[in-house]
């Protein structure tokens, strides 16, 4: 499941530091159950300090089969409830997805729940094992996603061989960097960490809010510990029946559809972008310029891969559509590469440690399940999909190709079964490309007490709490009272809302944070832009 790497660098993007070092631990005993409590201290993050958050480090076993063995540490933050004790509704763990996304800052998420409904919870952000401010972290090669890469589409044997060697080399770098951590980064390891965190917080049950891959964490937790789940919101649902090789092929087709929708939006606003008056004309311009960049990169660094990477954002979200269009227009019409380069650098930082999110992404997905071991299968499947969905199929293939040679031992996924889970709220937009809507329908089927809210016709991935009142008010009501939309009998959504609307580039864009809101919606966008 390919993702924009900026999501994994969220803390840096919003100007936040790591968790404070002045934190205590909980020691796992008696089969891994923790009976001590987290000790809270100051946070390093200025954003968290402004919200009067507390931070700590939680010790968990590297190997949950050996609870008294080697320990690692998870960075945890908490923003306490603001309601009287008799209105308190418990702890709310949050995960932004990825896998590999830093969630430490997401204890601020309660600020964005309408009608003050978030104030009844202690919001708990945490960096999963190997991520961000947790210890140790995994990083393998901070220059891997940088410039001067061969074209994604392997039109020659030499290109294919170069990419295979690159992917194999990255896997080897991670094997050296990760050592024994690499065998303990499966989804189920983080789920077990979450249960130790529950215990360390002194809670019999958790509430949980998961985005994207975070929905899969929620699905597994609710399968293994249904009695420990109180309320759960899952936005942008991973299909538990398509883990993970098939899920990526599904994405390729969905992103190709969404980028065509985006080309149509650019055409609708040709008076602003001057890229073509029809979707087909813009599409032809994109691929024509991409071919030219193969021979002569923009500014010497933005080649065909980088152009795909910049446009990929538009396939995920309506957020930032203007910026991508403006950058491409500046290049096409004025041969100015600066905006394209700024967008690429913002999403794909380079340098030591910047590949932490990517490394963890691979470490989780490559070991949750055994990927196909035959390159001939990868080649055949990706050429088959590329023929109908050329936008990012091969880019996605190479993104995941280190799984062919990954050093960690693959496991067997937990069979997701929500028959014993309490009522949970599912959210998704119809044309979500990162987690196609069929995944939300599958999760709804497996969780018979759930209800699904659909942003009808929308293309945004995991876009709850971004101001869509129909969706966000439903979340607030559920968090206040546990009330869900009435479940229908058909295999469809239970409540239908208008989606998040595309931007209007002709209108004056509000570039400023919302008055009276801390942090701003812009900050939240940076926090949740994860796939």
What does this structure look like?
The protein has 531 residues and is an alpha/beta fold. It has two domains: 5-138 and 185-243 and 413-528, 3-Layer(aba) Sandwich (Rossmann fold); 157-166 and 244-405, no CATH class. 39% of the residues lie in helices and 11% in strands. The chain is built from 17 helices and eleven strands. It has helices spanning 10-13, 46-50, 157-178, 187-200, 213-224, 245-268, 270-273, 279-295, 304-316, 321-334, 338-347, 356-368, 375-388, 393-400, 437-446, 469-481, 521-528, and strands at 28-29, 33-34, 54-61, 71-79, 91-95, 122-126, 206-211, 229-235, 425-429, 451-455, 495-497. The strands form two sheets. It has a nine-stranded mixed beta sheet, with helices on both faces. A two-stranded antiparallel sheet has the order 1-2. Strand 10, helix 16 and strand 11 form a beta-alpha-beta unit. Helix 6 crosses helix 8. The chain starts with 9 loop residues before the first helix and ends with a helix.
């Amino acid at each position: 499941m390919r993702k924009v790497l900026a999501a994994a660098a969220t803390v840096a993007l919003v100007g936040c530091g790591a968790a404070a070092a002045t934190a205590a631990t909980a020691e796992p005993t008696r089969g891994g159950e923790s009976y001590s409590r987290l000790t809270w201290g100051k946070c390093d993050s200025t954003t968290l300090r402004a919200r009067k958050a507390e931070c700590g480090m939680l010790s968990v076993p590297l190997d949950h089969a050996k609870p008294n063995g080697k320990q690692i540490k998870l960075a945890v933050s908490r923003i306490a409830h603001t309601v009287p004790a008799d209105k308190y509704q418990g702890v709310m763990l949050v995960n932004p997805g990825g896998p590999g996304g830093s969630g430490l800052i997401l204890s601020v998420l309660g600020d964005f729940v309408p009608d003050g409904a978030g104030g009844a919870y202690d919001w708990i952000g945490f960096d999963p094992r190997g991520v961000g401010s947790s210890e140790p972290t995994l990083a393998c090669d901070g220059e891997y996603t940088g410039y001067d890469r061969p074209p994604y589409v392997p039109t020659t044997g030499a290109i294919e061989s170069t990419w295979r060697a690159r992917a194999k080399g990255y896997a080897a770098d991670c094997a050296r960097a990760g050592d024994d951590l690499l065998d303990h980064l499966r989804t189920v390891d983080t789920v077990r960490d979450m249960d130790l965190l529950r215990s360390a917080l002194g809670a019999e049950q958790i509430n949980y809010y998961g985005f994207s891959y975070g929905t899969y964490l929620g699905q597994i937790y609710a399968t293994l510990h249904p009695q420990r789940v109180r309320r759960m919101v899952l936005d942008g649902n991973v299909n538990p029946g398509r883990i993970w090789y098939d899920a990526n092929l599904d994405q390729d087709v969905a992103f190709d559809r969404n980028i065509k929708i985006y080309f149509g939006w650019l055409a609708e606003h040709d008076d602003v972008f001057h890229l073509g008056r029809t979707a087909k004309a813009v599409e032809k311009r994109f691929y024509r310029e991409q071919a030219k960049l193969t021979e002569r990169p923009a500014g010497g660094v933005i080649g065909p891969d980088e152009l795909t990477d910049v446009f990929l954002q538009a396939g995920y979200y309506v957020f930032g559509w203007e910026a991508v269009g403006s950058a491409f227009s500046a290049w096409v019409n004025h041969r100015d590469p600066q905006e394209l380069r700024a967008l690429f650098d913002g999403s794909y930082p380079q340098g030591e440690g910047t590949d932490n999110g990517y490394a963890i992404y691979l470490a989780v997905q490559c070991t949750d399940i055994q990927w196909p071991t035959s390159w001939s299968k990868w080649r055949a499947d990706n050429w088959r999909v590329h023929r109908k969905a050329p936008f990012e199929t091969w880019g996605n293939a190479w993104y995941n190709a280190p799984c062919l040679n990954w050093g960690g031992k693959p496991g067997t996924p937990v069979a997701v079964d929500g028959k014993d889970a309490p009522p949970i709220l599912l959210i998704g937009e119809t044309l979500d490309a990162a987690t196609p809507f069929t995944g939300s329908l599958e999760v709804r089927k497996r969780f018979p007490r759930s209800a699904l809210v659909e942003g009808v016709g929308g293309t945004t991935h995991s876009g709850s709490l971004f101001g869509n009142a129909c969706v966000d008010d439903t979340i607030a009501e559920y968090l206040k009272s546990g009330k869900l939309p009435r479940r229908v009998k058909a295999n469809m959504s239970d409540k239908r809302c208008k989606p998040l609307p595309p931007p209007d580039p002709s209108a004056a864009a509000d570039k400023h944070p919302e008055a009276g809101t801390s942090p701003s919606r812009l900050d939240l966008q940076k926090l949740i832009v994860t796939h």
